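Worked example 2:
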Amino acid sequence: MEIYTKDSYVTGSMCDGKLKLSVLAADEIVENAVTELMGDLGIDGIVAMERYKAMWLIAKNNICFMRRPVWREEFTVKSYISKHSVVKLNLDTIVESKTGELLLKARTELAAIDLETGKIRKAETVGFDPSMENPVQTEGLDFSRFPKTCGGMTESVTVRSTSLDYCYHTNNIEYVRFMLNTYPVDHFKTHEPAQLEIHYASQSFEGEVLSIMKESYDSGDQFHVLRDSQEITSARIRWV
């Protein structure tokens, strides 16, 4: 059982216009914690590729905001594997203030694919061992079912070289950026994020044109990112 822990603080580059931790920065904190935990366990993406000829992919991410910390406020990040199945890992991440106040909580679902066949691999064939699990699940982070379609195209974006990760796929956080860019600045002045849940269905690459579809529901703003007619990513963002 391993629990990744890191003390940090809100830097200027993490802030939005309210001098609070931005949605993008929160997503980065969660993904970095997951990556570092997998590294501490010796089963990170680099090891998976070199030793097991596989790749860990984030399938889903669900982030809930309690209170966004402000510029220079200190916080502690904790991340651990909370549950596993034959082919998937759930990793829970919490961010707390120095006084123990819960600031945000997140659940990330990982799956491994074979680099040669493209098929999903069993987790235990990519270095995972059940003893790595800390079977304490954070409440309120179950993943949702999204509608298969939503409203018309809000805008299109072209994937550029600086949006790519080390595997030359579009970085996960870039999809969040694409979606957030559909809002005017006045929206961020008058609303607070409550939840970001995003599901990754496929990958995109440099030069591809993606369509950002968006529709508002009582449950939040629903997004679908498409390449031609193929869904790449879907998400829901709730605001208060």
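Helices lie at 23-40, 45-52, 172-180, 185-190. The chain has two domains: 4-132, 153-239.
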